[in-house]
Amino acid sequence: VQLQASGGGLVQAGGSLRLSCKANGMILSTFIWNGPNWYRQAPGQQREPVASITSDGSTNYADSVKGRFTISRDNNKRTIYLQMNSLKPEDTALYFCGTETDWGQGTLVTVSS
User: Fold this and answer.
1) Which range among 9-13, 32-36, 66-70 shows the weakest confidence by mean pLDDT?
2) Do residues 11 and 111 make contact, with C-beta atoms less than 8 angstroms apart?
3) Which residues contact 106 (CB under 8 A, 6 or more apart)?
4) Across the chain, which distance is largest between two alpha carbons, in Å?
5) What sections of the chain are H helices per DSSP?
6) Average pLDDT over residues 91-98
């Protein structure tokens, strides 16, 4: 399984970005029941969970991103998304998608003030 994240970039505070993570080689049942979720790691800090989505589509978010970020999933494309709105400088981080056993390479999000 290879998790490929994309969509990061440089954006001004208040702007939006949409991240994608494609799970190459992951079978559908695994993607639905144990698929990837979103994490981030800011400079000098530990990796933290950002958003997750369960098999029935229920979502969960870190308090710091609630109301601004939305996770979604396209099972047929084996892809999860993270729509990030109202971005803040403190959202600057390397964003990863990962499962219990696999991690993507990350995509860098930089929010300027």
Assistant:
1) 32-36
2) yes
3) 5, 41, 94, 95, 96
4) 42
5) 28-34
6) 97
